[in-house]
Amino acid sequence: MAEKCVLAYSGGLDTSVAIRWIAETYGVDVIALAVDVGEERDYEGIRRKGEQVGAVESLVVDAKQEFFDEHITRAIAANLTYERKYVAFTALARPLLAKEQVRVAREKGATHVAHGCTGKGNDQVRFEVTYAALAPELEIIAPAREWGMTREDEIDYAKEHGIPVPVGKDSPYSTDTNLWGRSIECGRIEDPSLEAPEDAWEWTVNPLEAPDEPEYVTIGFEQGVPVSLGGERMDGVRLVGELNALGGAHGVGRVNMIENRLVGIKSRELYECPAATIILEAHRDLESLVLDRETAHFKQHLELKYSELVYYGLWFTPLRVAIDAFMAQTQKPVGGEVTVRLYKGRAEAVARESDESLYDFSLATYGEEDIFDQSSSRGFIEIFGLPAKVVSMIRGVQE
After folding, report:
1. Domains of the chain by range and CATH?
2. Active-site entry in 174, 228, 267, 288
3. For the whole model, what pTM was predicted?
4. Which of 10, 14, 176, 182 is catalytic?
5. Are 269 and 185 in contact (CB under 8 A)?
6. pLDDT tens digits, 247-275
7. DSSP assignment of 146-182, as one string?
8. Of 112-126, 224-238, 280-294, 331-345, which gets the smallest average pLDDT?
């Protein structure tokens, strides 16, 4: 009986070719595993296609709710944004996909796991670090690192073996989609000196062609988790889906960046993340209302580290768990509602309220209601500035 390999299967070019290639090269039976983390696709069709192109078994797992509950909510708590632009939705999902592979491998008695990632991307690291953390005994196959085929070669291979693929040489974009965003790579996008081609965008309208009137959306939070939209309570998967549609209609959520990959190269990336853009804008704004200054400032340092951990694929590590514990503590007072204005590609928080608000009108106002004792400021400033004053007196002005 042949050994088994569980392949992370998307139904796209790389993994469709990989089924046939792995079986022929390694002599193993391939189990194709597709994990639904929010991409609106025909997963039954993908399952059938896996069998059609040579898998001995083709499975689909619906993990949308788990993705929101265990990954997206943590990303929101940490305001997860890599290099201040990318909400890291692909990086956020990969550990979940790899975890499901490990679970199926153990259920089916498989000895190998495989992915379709190239040797110059980030995803290979995210998959394989997760495999190592959860099941170091499994052998890893990475066909795209081994077969030496260009994208055009893969297309030719697919045609030669009767493997249907969703791309052609005249439209060479590579995309990845989940509930939290959509990425677009390859083709003309790889030249950073060119403006992003308009046909690469699918979720978002051109901001120049977005409605001339703004739209306002109110998001309710409980302990940092978005729980309602416009006053209507709804589950997270639905809420994110509705905000993707609303934001996309106003051109919100386009990202065009030069990104520092983990492997050390720079790449030009396009992303669409309407819901993530809106929710993170609202969440940051609400935190500014309810978190004390020292917690808010210190949290920003950990947010930077957290974004790197997730981007680098270090999800199943003690440091990520420890930072999550800190983030969870900070989120306890993060409840209330934030109104966000969507207009011509921008999402801007314009109003907010919370029972946990630390904003004191009588301290903030310059009107008649002002109770702030301004006479105390002189002594405060003298003590606060004393170290600078002493240095200047002894060593002179520091320039």
Report:
1. 4-170 (3.40.50.620), 180-291+333-353 (3.90.1260.10), 361-395 (1.20.5)
2. 174
3. 0.93
4. 14
5. yes
6. 999 999 999 999 999 989 999 999 999 99
7. HS---HHHHHHHHHHTT---S-BTTB--EEEEETTEE
8. 112-126
